Each structure stands twice: as C-alpha cells, then as structure tokens.
Amino acid sequence: MSENYKFVQNKKCEFFPCHDVKDKDSFNCLFCFCPLYALGEKCGGNFKYTNGVKDCSDCTIPHSKGGYDFIMSKIDMITKMGSER
After folding, report:
1. Planar angle of CA 10, 12, 16, nearest 5 degrees
2. Which of 2, 59, 67, 81 has the fewest CB atoms lying closer than 10 Å?
3. Domain Cysteine-rich small spans what residues (predicted)?
C-alpha cells in the first residue's frame, strides 16, 4: 500500500528547510505548522519556552521520518481539546 500522503516537500519555499538538518532530501514539509503546538508540554517534542512563548525551533519530529505517525498518534488529544469548548 502506498503511503505517499505522509510526505510532502517544498524546496521552493523561502524557508526550506526551516530547521537545521543533515539530510534535506528527507525533510518533510507536510506539517509546516505542527498541529501538536497547542498541546503545550504534552506534545512530546523538543521545545522550550522563551519569554512565555513555546519555541519549537529545536524540534524536527514533524519533519522527520515517522513524524506523521507520531503526530497522528496524538491527534485525538487535539480533537478532544476542540470539542471541550
């Protein structure tokens, strides 16, 4: 079964790659903005808070191999957040 939907790359983007990585060819742009950002400390990524703002510049999970599956494993948490309002 094809799983091409899990990987998108836009080398024409003026920010490509938006993180410092060794292998640009495997850099995944699918989650340009990480949907797990709203989870705060529960996102599971490598982040820090700078002046009270979540800084994900050191996190490459959404852009790496396996990133799609990682995000989808937590997407129910985002859905739950939306339904609680």
Report:
1. 70
2. 2
3. 4-81
**What is the CA angle 74-78-79, rounded to 5?**
110
Rg, C-alpha atoms of the chain? 14
Residue boundaries of the structural domains of the chain = 9-83
Of 3, 10, 44, nearest to 28 by C-alpha is: 10
pTM: 0.85
Residue range 46-73, pLDDT digits in tens? 999 999 999 999 999 999 999 999 999 9
What six digits make up the tokens of 32?
Answer: 């340009």
